[in-house]
Amino acid sequence: MPFLPSSFFKRDVIxxxxxxxxxxxxxxxxxxxxxxxxxxxxxxDPAAHTATRPSAREFVKVGRAGTSYVYFNYGMYWxxxxxxxxxxxxxxxxxxxxxxxxxxxQMQSRRQGHKLENWCSGPxxxxxxxxxxxxxxxxxxxxxxxxxxxGFRVPAGGRQHEVVADxxxxxxxxxxxxxxxxxxxxxxxxxxxxxxxxxxxx
Length: 202
Prior knowledge:
The longest helix is centred in the N-terminal third of the chain and has 9 residues. By secondary structure, the chain is an alpha+beta fold. The radius of gyration is 16 Å and the shape is globular. Helix content is 16%, strand content 27%. The mean pLDDT is 95. Strands 1, 2, 3, 4, 5, 6, 7 and 8 form an eight-stranded antiparallel sheet that branches. The chain has one domain: Methylpurine-DNA glycosylase (MPG) (3-methyladenine DNA Glycosylase, Chain A).
C-alpha cells in the first residue's frame, strides 16, 4: 500500500487525529496499527506545547506538515508526535498507542518481559518498542523527503476500527477537550474509553 501523502496532514488537526486511528505506522522494519491519538491545537489549547514553549511555536512555524516532533517527557520517555498544518487548525498529534503488526521480533527485543498488549499501550512504550528517540525529531514522514522505510499507510485489510472520542490523558489544563481518539474496545490502548482520571489544576 502507498504511504499517505503530505496533503493528508495539511488539514484540521482534529480531523487528522481521528483519521489516523486505524492507519499503519511503519518505522524502520517494524509497524503497528494506530489505535489511539491525541490532538493539541496551536491556538486556544493551554495544554499544548505551543502555549508554553517558544521552541514548539517555532517548530510549527518553520516545519512541514507530516514532520515528526519528538520530545523527552518527565526525564523518562521519548514521545512521538506529528506536525499538522494548513487546515482550519494547526497542531501536533501525539501517537499514543499501537497494535503491533510487523517486525515483531525486533519490537519484542526492546520490550522483553512484557505481554504483546503492553508493548505499545502508551506513548512512551510505543517509542521504546519502535526504537524512536530524540535523534528522530524533525524526520519527514510524508511527501518529498520522506524518510525511507518510514511513513503512514492504509493497512492491507483496510481500516477496521470504530473510532470514539474521549478526553485526553495526564493533563490538568483543557482536560475537558474530547480530543483523544481511540479504536473502540481495542486492548492495546493506554487508557480505555471513559477511564481517564481527572487531574487537579495547578
